[in-house]
Amino acid sequence: MRFDILTLFPEMFSSPFQESILAKAIEKGLIEVRTINIRDFALDKRRIVDDAPYGGGQGMVMKVEPIARAIEQVKSEDPSVRTIYLTPEGKPLNQEMARQLSSRSHLILLCGRYEGVDERVRELFIDEEISIGDYVLTGGELAAMVLIDTVSRLLPGVLGSDRSAEEDSFFGSLLEYPQYTRPASFRGYEVPEVLLSGNHQAISLWRRKEALRRTWMRRPDLLSKASLSEEDKKILEEISKKDVS
Ligand code: ADE
Asked: Which of 24, 124, 146, 187 has the lowest CB atom count within 10 Å?
């Protein structure tokens, strides 16, 4: 899968893709991340990419022409590319959206700065607007990194085994169960007995219960979307009774 990032700050992307899982994914050719400096597509000698807003007001607006030229260059190589604009006004990113995006072979990620982009960029070139949460970043760059990370780990071969992505929080709309590793005892805090028992059935049941408990306590909104068995529903009933008493 290929990501073309349109940004005024390409240097920001140098380190996140040089470490760990994403670096390996690039090395293996599973993902390709390219940064394109919007400034390189400015029309004038001074390479101006922003201007004051028509109608007045604070701040600067990113000009339409450099962005248009940059997008058109990528599109000339691949007309089927999907163009995403990272903005707090976009649709909030979630795991389901990440899964849908992971089926695409090529995305353009446009990172806004200042007061955003000229509205005509959105009208003419943007297929989808995505936000990574209800807060305002200094620009779309960090949001683009989050999106690339979230989508890439869903691609076959990027994580060690394909199972890891499926077992994560949100896959079945439950949060994850607690994890422990050695030592079994730390400052008087013990690893739950069942995890040391070697009884795989009991371990699975404990984990499911803990995932349900954690989701019920922290994110009850997720339970309505989760696929729950009759057994799960019974467990939840027990959990809610215990909490009330
Ligand atoms: N740019 C600024 N804030 C953002 C956010 N929350 N999500 C995506 N892009 C942004």
From this structure: 187
